[in-house]
Amino acid sequence: MQARYESSPKETASMNTAELRSNFLVETLFTPDQIHIVYSHYDRMILGGIMPKNESLNLSTYDELKSDYFLERREIGIINVAGDGKITADGEVFSISKLDCLYVGKGVKKVVFESIDSTNPAKYFILSAPAHATYPTRLMTKEEASPAVMGAIETANQRVIYKYIHLEGIKSCQLVMGLTVLQIGSVWNTMPSHTHDRRMEAYCYFDVPENHGVLHLMGQPQETRHLWISNHQAIISPPWSVHSGCGTSNYSFIWGMAGENQSFSDMDFIPISELR
Fold first, then answer.
1. How far apart are CA 156 and CA 255, in angstroms?
2. What digits encode the pLDDT tens for the residues 7-41?
3. Which of 69, 74, 123, 195 has its CA at a distance of 20 to 30 angstroms from the CA of residue 177?
4. Which residues does the record give as Zn(2+) binding sites (predicted)?
5. What average pLDDT does range 63-90 have in this prediction?
6. How do the domains of the chain map onto residue ranges?
7. Is residue 222 left, alpha or beta, with left meaning phi > 0 and alpha meaning psi from -120 to 50?
8. Which residue ranges make up the annotated binding site for Zn(2+)?
9. Residue stretches of the annotated binding site
10. What residues does 162 pair with on adjacent strands?
11. Contact 270, 214 (CB under 8 A)
């Protein structure tokens, strides 16, 4: 488990590219038959990637958590971004295809990840937050997520939004999670940009074509910074930071939050004319 500590707006404004990347970018998520875990001190969110290829992978606890099992005091949201797989939670088996989401609540002792086909393995992006209440484990397919078309071709941000874990969807203690698929010809996400000082956010970019990338914007609105993101990389976004992006092609990304509330519409929008 790798730890990432909080950085204030003042110190972030003076970071060079290498420092920004080491603090906010998770460069490696998916390695065959390995689990990559990052512990962020923003709202104590854990994010990571799990890629079972030739064997099943058990999400065990870590010494840093001081818990008997991973979900003793936590909940977890899981979205598959690749081949078909299955997840077993305390003996209950869930088949999970690409873009499906599984929520597993506090108190589940054993979570095992598998792929159906080793030549096209599943790739699971996970977000886990502390939990003070228990909610039932639940699978939601992408078709059940009430996909909503938003944006326009004229502004290069026509996209489909899938909401999974939120107030009107899968119930959780504090997690909010979903994903956005940009349509062909559209490259901008989350613009006009916004902040929400009541909760942090994490992004996982996927389906970024080979030899393409995404320019992720972060920082305070009047002091923005940027990071170049490749396929299957993740960003930790502080509560005080904007989080927008523009790609050299269309792409998809998972978004997830934890903090003071679960309201999807809780955003403090920043007019484009005020960004610096």
1. 19
2. 999 999 999 999 999 999 999 999 999 999 999 99
3. 69
4. 194, 196, 201, 243
5. 98
6. 2-274
7. alpha
8. 194, 196, 201, 243
9. 194, 196, 201, 243
10. 179
11. no
